[in-house]
Structure formats: structure tokens, C-alpha cells
Amino acid sequence: MNAMKKVQHLIKACIIALPILALCSCQEIDDEYTGPAPVEVNWNEAAASLESTLIDTFWDTNRHVFNESTTSNGFQYWPQAHAMDIVIDAYDRTKDEKYVPYFSEWYEGIKSANGWRYYNDYNDDMAWIAITLTKLYQRTEDQKYLTTAVELWERIVSYWNTDYCDGGVAWHKDQPWAKNACINGPASFLSMQLYSITKDEKYLDWAEKIYLWTKSHLFNPSTGAVYDGFDGRKNILDKIALTYNQALFMASGLRLYQAKNNMSYLMDARRTAVYTISASETLDLGNNILRHEGDGDGALFKGIFMRYLVEMIEEDALSESYRTTFKNFMIHNAQVAWKGVKDNNPTFFSPGWDKAAGENTSCNAQVSGTTLIEAVYKVTK
Predict the structure, then answer these.
(1) How many of the other CB atoms lie within 10 Å of CB of 205?
(2) Which of 204, 222, 254, 311 has the most CB atoms lying inside 10 A of its own CB?
(3) 35 pLDDT tier (thresholds 50, 70, 90)
């Protein structure tokens, strides 16, 4: 079956009805998947409830950071960005000023918890924090957020090198050979964020430079898969496809299309989105939802994909058939995830969206599930 026929089957299945989804796998998407009957959900209320749960459960009122789990007050740097994105979501949805103090408290808190600096040995961690800082600047116009984001961006792009793999930003400061999607996608997207704020062409140039390197080295144009990374010492390509890597390549391509009106970038983004919602590598085929990607960092990955899939759905240039496909896939994931937690107290997500967590969970899993519900609210409001 060729790629166009696959997409046509996907679109047809999603338009017919939400419960009947033909998103099983790249190999066999003709088979219809009949999930549980959809239930009426007030996604605004669901998002509000989950945002409160996140803050009440994980926000450390003394350190002003999010704790690692319900059983540990450990500190992880990069997930802080995605937890704060939920607070930003709550502010955007409600315009309630009660959320604003969290912004500045978190800004100081992560610096303190990270050894009184914003720098990190992992460039991808810094990129995620910087992306969130640009979002805080966009809401507040407080210069400190933009200043720190730019400082982090300058440090990140300084790790671009051509000694290995003909370019690319290195993942870790001491591993110049490690050229991974997890840093190059966020670095490109961060550059686009800074370009949208400053209109400085250097950021656009860097965004495109990093994106094109990723496209030529880590992207499979025939499938839409974004591979994990290159070990430049041995020229070994790790072909695992993780949802958050898919997400930022997709989002960067979309932003570049919007800035340069180059249709190839939109086509790349669309192909990546289609792959992610239809490939056996990324799906839990039993439920036709994004798969369990691990209990640690991986618990957060698929929520990140859903956040940036919203931007695809909202893109005017996207055809209505693709929009419907992406939107219905997102709603189906949310239906499955919400059914698992809605009657629980507390409403804790597990790393797999097909089941609730019970009495304890990680901040990563909770952020991921909450991001999904917030994403569905945005595309259905």
C-alpha cells in the first residue's frame, strides 16, 4: 500500500466517526479499530481539575520547583519546563492572575535547585527550559525571561560542530559526536521562538540550518519517522522513533513553513504527524493510542507530541481532512486516558494512558496526561 493510500484510509476512518479509527499501524491500517463508546466530557473542567492536581501535588512551596514524584521531592531539570507549560496553559485558559506569581517563583526556583545557574551539561535540557522562558516572556514581557532564554540559546548553538556528522548540535557538552534529535529539534524550535519575538534573522537562519541538518541525517522522508540520533564516532544511526523527537521536528517544520512559505516544510511536518499517529513503532496497537515509552523521562514524551500537534491542527493551510484525522486521534487518546482516571481520587495518570496510576505517580506521567487533556480542550473549545 503506498503512502497516499494509507493517508486516504486514515482520513476516511476518522471522518466516519470517532469510535471507529483506522490508525492501527503503518502495515495494516485498513482494519478498523472499534474502541469504547465516547462519553461527553467537559474538557475545560477536566483540564482545570488536572491543573489543580498538578500544582497541589507536585509544586514545592519552599523550593518553588516541581517535585519528581508523589513519593520523592527529587529535582529533575528538563521536566520543569513542561510542568510550567501546564501553569501557562491554565493562565491562558482562565486569564486568572493567581497563576502569574508561579512564573517568577519558578524562574528563581529552578536556578537555585540547579546549582544557582541555568546552564546544564545537556543541551536538550537547556533548550526545553529556554523554550518555556520564551513563552513566559510572551505572556509577561518581563525581560529577564527573554534574556535568560537568549543566553541559553547562545550556549546551545555553540555546540554545533562539523567534526562529526557534517554538523548538528551535540547532545552533551562532553560528547561532540552525539548528534541527537532530542536536541536538534528543540534547538530549531527555540530559534523559531526567538525569531518570532525579536524578528532577528539570525534566529531564523539558525532554525533552518539546524532543521535541514536534522532532515538530511535523522528524518526518513518515505515514512515520516524521525530517528533518535547519530553516534558520530562509529557512524551508527539509532533508528528508534520517540514521540517527543517527532514533535519538535514537526513543530519546527511548521514554524519554518509559516515564516518562509516553503511548502516542503509543511509537507515534512504533516508526514511526521501521520507517521506518529499510525506507525506500529509509536502506537499501543491494542488501544490505538500513543504507546507507553517508559517510566522515567519517557513518561513525558507523548504529552509533548500532543502539545505540538495542536499547532498542526490549528494551521490554516492544513486540509480539513488531515485536520479531522489529527483531531480525532487526539480526542480518542484523551477519551481512553480520561476514562481511566476520571473516577479516581486523586486523578493520577500512569506512563501508559490506558490505565490509571493508583495512589502514586511521577510528575512526568502527570504532566504528560494533563498536557493531553489541555491539548484536547484547545482543539475542541
Answers:
(1) 12
(2) 254
(3) low
